[in-house]
């Protein structure tokens, strides 16, 4: 191989036209593209035009490393703005995490006019930064924002959401700051919720709400996916049966909410006939009576009854109800100690597309695993069954025994 010196290399690369150089520059990282701008005026101009390949941008850990080197938040925001001045007009999806300063929001609103998906993790904010902050984002369809701080949710953020009423299809709002979680979602949110014209996915995590707020959620006619997790309801809400009024639901996840019981499941089963995926955690107040109602849901292919507390168990759910389920794709009965081989083997037999199965902390034994091996060996659909079990449910030499091998079976063992 011939070795060329630096002068020959410079001469050769400068013989390339601007189009070729632009294509080459697109192979470089963001930081490397900025370095190119320092080489010469020609490369600076070309490099600044070589950003249209970036339509999806995720930045989080990089900012965290900057903070570890005592880079202040204003410098981080300046760096973000520098990036967005280059590629913002091309971006369709933007994720920014570990951001200390909400001043980045007006920057996004200024440069990212084509943005369809926006995910933010904010640790510090002021109300003024949220003023009309989505007015230029006319195409924004998905907004996922996590507030990680002790401050109240800014009222200007609530008001700014109204600008997205015609376009927003997915909205996720999370407060994960443990010390001041469960901030109350005030009445100011009500007209905003009523303004959603095409919202089909809503997730609210870590807040407190009242019956009026819940009622307004349940009146969103376009809603197909709802996640309510770690929610505290005020004293007047004894049940969350209003959720059964959302007729078009296909996905429902109710996590760490005490009001999940047999009556709730019965109403969901009677009214939400399009439901395909159902996650209930914990299901400690549920029994076979409630679970049997789910058999009415002919489209249901995912059911999770996994517990949030590793030390509580579901004792009211038994083989009587679970053995009757079929055509499942995901099935999670972790913590249901009264579930035995009988029901799980039956589910495996009648669910040829089963992909995920959690049998941790149940009374299921090696018999079910052996059956799964034999059944999946015969699969012709190339779908792999992933089983999560406890080490105590299998023999110590399990993975060394060839009789337990199947090309379409994977087993993950977890300590009890």
From TrEMBL:
Gene Ontology cellular component annotations, sorted alphabetically: SCF ubiquitin ligase complex
Signal peptide: none
F-box domain ranges (all copies): 10-54
GO biological process: SCF-dependent proteasomal ubiquitin-dependent protein catabolic process
Pfam families named in the record: F-box
Listed InterPro entries: F-box_dom, LRR_dom_sf
Protein name: F-box domain-containing protein
